[in-house]
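Example complex used in Figure S2.
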Amino acid sequence: MTGPSETLALRDLTKIFRIKTGTFRHADLRAVDDVSVSITPGRTLAVVGESGSGKTTLARLILRLIHPTEGLIRLEGTDITRMKGAQLEEMRGRMQIVFQDPYDSLSPWQTVGRTVAEPLILHENMSMQDATGPVAAMLERVGLSPEHARRYPHELSGGQAQRVGIARAMITNPALVVLDEPTSSLDMSVQSQILLLLQSLQEERNISYLFISHDLTVVRYIAHDLAVMYLGKVVESGPAAEVFASPRHPYTEALLKAAPRPDPNYKTDYVHLVGEQPSALDRAPGCPLYGRCPIAEEVCADTPQELVEIEAEHRVACWKRT
Amino acid sequence: MSALLELHGLEVEIEGLPILRGVDLEVRPGEILGVVGETGAGKSMTARSILDLLPAKATLSFEECTFGGEDFIPARARQLARGHRIGFVPQRPRGSLNPVFRVGKQIVDTLRRLRGMTRKQARDEALNLLRSVRITDPERVYRSYPHELSGGMCQRVCIAIALAGEPELIIADEPTTGLDVTIQAEILKLLGEVIAEHNAAGMLITHDLGVVADVCDRVAVMYAGRVINLGTTVEIYREALHPYANQLVSIASSLDSGGTPQEIPGRVPNPGDELAACAFAPRCFRAEDDCFQQEPPLVQIEGQMAFCHHPLTSEVVSV
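Predicted assembly (641 residues):
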């Protein structure tokens, strides 16, 4: 499954958080559970799921901001799972992130120019003087003017601040950019500007995107591949068009049906799931959806089903649908 | 059809900054009107004006407002209508419930204040209300504190409280924003059903065009403190007259169908920015000199109205 042709490959990636439940007691929360996905150059993998599904933990694991409990992370063929120190610092230039809230993710005390130059200074040992040229070029590329380098974040609109976030992520020419809900705090007219920018940057530089979102309209537009997460597990994955057209897992089905679409003739539907997503602590040993699933049987309660390929690249983890 | 709520020339200023610059809209009996727009367009301020929930520093003026055929003074809505004639469903359900009281008590207090019920009557009615928002175990929820309930459950409770005064109009301000998609669908469906069951009308404030398409009968599109386009949901989604409304819908539909969205250049103006005669003119692909100099006229075609010098009438759209 892994090879140098893949920008990112995860194998059985797991993160367990130990939660204190009493003075001498604790419980294990499997925030990310046995996740194996990969992204090839120039493609976008969207990870969708509701709050608490482990999307953001997955992103933080990939970027090595937190340590995985088990599993393997490979970036451009190099195992970075246990990488440390200077080596990791150098690797960080190859993987960058754009955050959800453009204001919170920019330092209010630093000028835009300094913020965008920082990755070059940190990962490529450039001086601020040397960085000025590349920074100006990058700002122009993301639709700002070089004069913006002297501004502070509070002088920018939401869309402009997000452009700065993108410039900062792109300046080291990374192979992988994690986009954590990059448009969800933006207005609709600005949202489309940012999506178009991200897309043209991807085409130009052959970057791989890991796009985290709960907005299925945006995902439908930008994703090549899709992974659906529920309580830390990938329950379905495959080419985005294929999964949107024929979802197999009951959770994917419920999620897609419930998502409103901007068409007055289309009515959403929900019927499917019982109750609400439980805490990952109370999960059944079998399928994470057990207890809410309308088609569950006994086997689903205790025996977890692995992702099974049902069509080219389309995988689903469900006893009833494989 | 006579309108349930009619607003004309509603203006709100906060510390000298114009927030609403003459809002005209009407809500008809039995319908759900969607109010959409981007940040700062004045959606929430319009709702707050009607509910007399404006910040203390705000000054409000209007030409004419009526509710149920009678004169309506937004500044006195608190005494006249809020609660009993107009119900409100908030954006952050958990934040709007009092964390130190049980849910049941909060509904009972509302019922006793609005409908003068005895404790016993109010308790029975509270359980009925919880049942009417499809809560399967009303007794347990009645005894719960807000923190013991999930977000979706808290929003059901808020809807029950909004229904407590038997209102004629229910205003919901982004009622599903913090909720997960699968829960959002349930809450929206519920809201539509209870509004119909109680013979009320609804006003749904949202920035999500998918939500509007799903539940609203008519849509008011706001931009820079004004309603610039109003029509049935089908009209607005198929052939909106105003270029802004038209582009907004087309961006949403092209994203949805995987097509490349059009780009609206520039950004939404902030309150206090200097505006052209038509506030959208600097970003509009159809703008000409008159848009910058003269107030845009009211255009009415079938059920739709828009303020625009160069509306996208069907002849133009088909070109």
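Chain A has a mean pLDDT of 90. Chain A touches chain B at residues 50-51, 157-160, 187-193, 195-196, 214, 216-218, 220-221, 241, 254-255, 257-264, 266-270, 272-273, 276-277 (CB under 8 Å).
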